[in-house]
Design a protein that fits this description.
heterodimer, A: 255 residues, mainly alpha, 2 domains, two-stranded antiparallel sheet, B: 374 residues, mainly beta, 12% helix, elongated
């Protein structure tokens, strides 16, 4: 059932997804044709600018759109009457969104690699200078960590947006206003939970991270300690919000 | 329906709480919440090379007696200065080289490169000058070169350095003057005046007996436990001062400042950021533009101004103040028993708190101020 739901979400949003990916492909191909004509730094800056702005906005828009279309196309009756738990529906929608984000990130990475190679920046920066001292193991580990953090942040943004939308369906009037206010309220609550929860969970063991820095043209690792309490509190808040989203969808929303 | 009702009630309750919380802190409070550090970094940062160097050599420059002043001119690398166990000045240096392929040929290149590095003393009477010449640019096959100079200076010797890189000066008795860029500076347990001008850096000054003057451009300045006055400026960065026995005179331009636990008077100016001043035994004079000013624990006279920003003033102790507060195109809030005069564009508060011994002057232009007493 989950798989069918997931496929339905993907197929339901394929038009927007394909349009976005098509635009991105055309943009990448255009910039590839400019390599050697324009300054390499300009090409890379132009490549990075639109996706870094579009991706979070698209994630935000798509996360609301996944629920909005159910109400718009009157399929919410079917969705809520299906003999499945709400968590199957919500997780399938989140997974569909993440699939889009991952696909986009993968394309971005491949396009970036091609542009760096084509402009000659790859060899200049990463092979000749001190960056070549960085081991692949560390580079991969940090890329995964950074990518994971970005994905987690997007999931939180998407979850808050979805909760705000579904919660606004509890009201018969001013749904737009309720949605915006719920969005603001959720982030206010998150900040407060992280602050207070971080203090209460201060006993949790710290994380240790090796950060790469360059001092006097010599790359070094800085061993930094990261307090884990606020991160655990954030994880608990996200889990709580997700449970509440399921409960609202399952028990409270009337179609 | 019971669940829905409970949810909506909770929603209204949390909304009221959030509005009260956000409005209580004003715009600055809400912005502060948004800027809240979700991830807090703590503890000492320990630094280790990414890879052990492929070539390393150590040299000693021997000792010199009868020196009153040491000058290090234009050195790029790591500098470590400690107290000498004898009356003589001594120095040593190490050179570390990272190569591309670690082969025998590159090892020869590295050894030749190390020989090109010269570190020498030049003496003129009681003054010695440390001259460091490092090869530039690096030959093919060499990825990085690091020079580290270690000095041990006897008591009473003045230290002056023009330097790029990390500097650590610990436990010496004498004046320190550092003109520095790109790297971290740590000055600890020094007896004597400290004067640092630094750019693109992080400066940490701790447990110093003597006046401290630090000017930082692009970076942060942290100082604590200073038995003397502290002065200087930070541009595009952050200031953190805690535990100063003397006066503090500092300006922070485009950055945040925090000055706490000061035994003398405080004079601070700031722009485009938040300035917090707390627990000052002496008088306070603060001027902030485009940002928030929070002055907590005022016990004596205070002259506080803010333009295009919010101000919070908390008076503390048994003393008294004569209040003269004016807001042009702004607001003044207080629960204290003060006389209020209000017109379209101007609000004024005046009156006497306690014995009225200290003047409290508050000026606000296009912003707001809250005056309270604890």
């Amino acid at each position: 059932m989950w798989w069918q739901q997931y496929k339905k979400e993907l197929m339901g949003n394929r038009t927007e997804l394909l349009f976005l990916l098509g635009f991105f492909l055309v943009w990448t191909l255009f910039l590839l044709s400019r390599a050697g004509v324009w300054e390499p730094a300009v090409v890379i800056a132009l490549y990075g600018a639109p996706p870094s702005g579009i991706l979070p906005l698209w994630a935000l828009w798509a996360s609301v759109q996944l629920y909005r279309q159910e109400w718009r196309e009157n399929t919410s009756y079917l969705m809520l009457s299906l003999p499945v738990r709400a968590r199957v529906i919500t997780s399938a929608k989140l997974a569909a969104l993440l699939t889009g984000v991952l696909g986009f990130a993968l394309l971005f990475a491949v396009g970036g690699w091609l542009l760096l190679a084509r402009t000659g920046l790859w060899g200049e920066v990463f092979q000749r200078h001190v960056f070549s001292l960085i081991s692949w193991e560390y580079a991969v580990k940090m890329s995964l960590l950074t990518g994971g953090a970005v994905l987690a942040a997007l999931v939180i943004v998407a979850l808050v947006a979805q909760f705000a939308y579904v919660f606004s369906r509890l009201f018969s009037r001013l749904q737009g206003l309720v949605m915006v206010w719920t969005w603001v309220l959720s982030f206010w609550l998150m900040a407060r939970v992280v602050d207070v929860g971080g203090r209460l969970l201060a006993f949790m063991p710290d994380f240790h991270l090796r950060l790469l820095t360059i001092h006097n043209q010599v790359p070094e690792f800085e061993m930094v300690t990261v307090e884990s309490g606020p991160l655990w509190a954030l994880a608990l808040f996200v889990a709580g919000l997700y449970t509440l989203l399921n409960a609202v969808l399952e028990r409270a929303v009337e179609v | 329906m019971g669940f829905t009702r409970t949810l909506i009630l909770l929603f209204l309750l949390v909304s009221a709480l959030a509005v009260w919380d956000m409005a209580g802190g004003g715009v600055g409070g809400f912005a502060g919440m948004v800027e809240h550090d979700f991830v807090r970094f703590g503890g000492q940062r320990e630094r280790v090379p990414l890879r052990e160097p492929d070539f390393e050599e150590q040299h000693s420059l021997g000792s010199l007696a009868g020196v009153r002043r040491v000058v290090i001119d234009g050195f790029s690398g790591n500098l470590e200065v400690t107290r000498s166990a004898t009356d003589e000045l001594s120095a040593s240096y190490s050179v570390a080289i990272w190569t591309e392929d670690r082969g025998a040929r590159t090892a020869d290149t590295a050894a030749a490169l190390a020989r090109q590095l010269t570190v020498e003393w030049a003496r003129e009477g009681e003054e010695v000058r440390l001259q460091v010449e490092r090869p530039q640019p690096l030959p093919p096959g060499i990825q990085a070169l690091r020079v580290m100079v270690r000095l041990a200076v006897p008591d009473g010797v003045q230290l002056e350095a023009r330097h790029a890189g990390s500097a650590r000066i610990v436990g010496i008795a004498g004046s320190v003057r550092l003109d520095h860029s790109r790297g971290e500076v740590e000055v600890r347990e020094v007896q004597g005046p400290v004067n640092i001008a630094s750019s693109w850096t992080s400066v940490r000054v701790e447990s110093v007996r003597g006046p401290v003057q630090v000017d930082v451009t692009g970076g942060e300045m942290r100082a604590r436990d200073i038995a003397g006055s502290v002065g200087g400026s930070v541009r595009m960065g952050a200031l953190q001062l805690r535990g100063v026995e003397g006066d503090v005179t500092f300006s922070v331009d485009q950055g945040a400042g925090r000055v706490e636990d000061v035994g003398g008077d405080v004079r601070v100016t700031g722009s485009f950021g938040e300035m917090i001043v707390a627990q000052v035994a002496g008088d306070v004079e603060a001027y902030q533009t485009f940002g928030a000013l929070k002055v907590r624990g005022v016990t004596r006279a205070a002259d506080l101004s803010v333009r295009f920003g919010d101000m919070e003033v908390v008076l503390q102790g048994e003393g008294g103040w004569t209040v003269d507060a004016v807001a042009e195109l702004g607001a003044l809030e207080t629960s204290l028993n003060l006389q209020r005069e209000q017109s379209d564009q101007r609000v004024a508060l005046s009156g006497v708190i306690g014995d009225g011994a200290h003047p409290l002057r508050v000026r606000v232009e296009q912003g707001s101020a809250r005056i309270a007493r604890r």
